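1st attempt posting a full record on here, be nice pls
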Amino acid sequence: MFDFLRTLFSSTPAPAKPTSPDSSTTLAAPSLEQQQAPADRSFVLREPILDRGHRIAAYELRLDQQMQRRLNGKETTSWSAGDDELIGNLASINARSLIGDRLAFICLAPESLDNPSLSSLPADNTVLMVTPAHGDGPAPANLPDRLAALRTQGFHIGYQLRPEAAAEAVLLQCDFVLLSTPAYNGLEIADTVRRLLKLGAPTAPALIAADIETPDDFHLCFRLGFIYFQGPFVNHRENWRPPAGSIDRALIMRVMAQLRSDVDNAALAATVRQDAVITYKLLRYINSPFNGLTHEITSIDQCLQLLGRERFYRWLSLLLFDVHKPGYVERVLTEQALVRASLMERSGQRSTRPEANPDLLFLTGLFSLLDKLIGRSMAETLASVAVPKAVADALIAQSGPLLPFLSLAIACEKGEAQEVTAWANLCRLDVASVNEDMLAALVWAHEVTKVKDS
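the predicted structure (as tokens):
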């Protein structure tokens, strides 16, 4: 009866001094021995791509920077070694579950389009983004025919346009065309858009603005009709501003503080009933068909009895990320926090460290970006929620037994395998399991955000 509850609330299974991108405090550096990354380990990283509705519509999937540099430094005649490693990684995992109903953009050199492992990828969700810059010479003469053949297999085709024009025969086979905005000025971008829209294809390709660095670049591309957006402006959290939401977060924090103070269920229910939105969301959630209840729950008291106090606390913590009419800031922040939370929880379940409490690790990851979502200092935010001391130590004091797991999650986001390996060793984890758990966390976060937005 509680299958969906279990799905939502539980999960199964380098610089000398790495620093958290969310804090100016320098984290303790793992030892030199811990920093030795195995040569055969690679991490599949993802970068969100937003649509015009400010939703995460796709991900670019790529190797971590260290592995890409190592492979490209081999004595090869092309970039195909890195492409082969990426395709092999994606073919060995459940790529469809990784991306869900979103698109996966995979940048490949033209010669990599003949890789036989491409047939193992979910064609309907995969965009093969031809990237001439990765190649070592002119595009092969048969490229249009090869792209046409891949389209008949169900793949989507993209092309990374360079300032020098691509052959029209290639562009006619494309569903997507990507422009790296720093390579053009505003007039050149507008002229390129007009040229692409005049192609003789039955449907004009969807335009992707990549490497967007400033709000002005974003708004220019938006006005010119670009469909997708990617780059530092989207992903660099230091440029984000706290969003405004309609949900009563102060009330949620008060209820969470009551839970930690062992207030009885009757008092908790009385507080929850003060807010119609929270009451509605809780009743809608508990009566979801996923829970398989045989009768409708109509009271907050019954909800608390079914969920239990710890799970109710966890549901409330997720509700803090429920924002009215979210834009790209809220969506990216929310999904990133959920991925961190799930990855840290899974890491705690695997680790042999006795202090690796999965529940506390989940809260640490979830709350690690809450200050940016709410627009208050971390100390002030966590004081309102009354989190356990170990969570506060990791997020405010940058200390304690949970901090290495938070550092590991941040290292995974940054994509440096050496750092990931160092923190994984400190957490007593195998680096291969970290990669597996990171991908599983992405799937879980996507499922949660789909439920929240439904």
